[in-house]
Amino acid sequence: MFERMSLYQKYLLPKLLNWAMKAPALSKLRSELIPSAEGKVLEIGMGSGLNLPHYDGISGLIGLEPSEELQNLAEDMLIQTHFPSEMLTGSAEDIPLESNTFDTVVMTWTLCSVTDPVLALSEIKRVIKPGGKVIFAEHGKSPDQNIRKLQKTLNPLWSRIAGGCQLNREIVDLYESSGFKFKSMERGYLEGPKFATYNYRGVAALR
Ligand SMILES: C[S@@+](CC[C@H](N)C(=O)[O-])C[C@H]1O[C@@H](n2cnc3c(N)ncnc32)[C@H](O)[C@@H]1O
Prior knowledge:
CATH architecture: 3-Layer(aba) Sandwich
Number of domains: 1
Strand order of the largest sheet: 3-2-1-4-5-7-6
Shape: globular
Bound molecules: S-adenosylmethionine
Number of helices: 7
CATH superfamily: Vaccinia Virus protein VP39
Structural class: alpha/beta
Largest sheet: 7 strands, mixed
Radius of gyration: 16 Å
Number of strands: 7
CATH class: Alpha Beta
């Protein structure tokens, strides 16, 4: 059983994620959010590189991604960027980079999957320059009681089939309690099942 799950996670899940993350509603959000990235950019959980075509006028990008298979899927797009770019293997909880380095950190639909979101946000705080910003889009806890109940019920199974993804992360609380303030923030349901599509997106900065 364990072997079957790990083969699923290693080979099939990256392809499923690549397909699911190409949903038109997500592409629209990428096109609205990502062009405001500036300067030196770190993208956390870069996945298959679907944000890459939306960067405009940045000085360089490092994409951090733990999955080798997703890195392979991102490679073609990485080669085509008009700015210096590279991929690094690593996790948000232990960013293998120096402090005070990045003007912009980008993290889209990834905080749901990191094992320790508080540690991840403290690492982001460490690597961002004073005056820098985080561009984010995440799904998370719904404001509706019935949907919250469903999220709680589905979470154990969902996280097993969706690479550790938690349906009900408290995105606003996580950012605020980690020392960020929102420069902009919008929330609401996107297309799709309500338990997985309550979305938070915007720009956060250090308080
Ligand atoms: C739903 S996918 C989103 C991918 C990409 N950010 C996008 O917008 O298409 C979640 C991503 O989080 C990555 N991930 C999971 N755990 C992580 C961790 N601890 N640190 C960094 N990335 C992680 C996964 O490998 C995957 O690329």
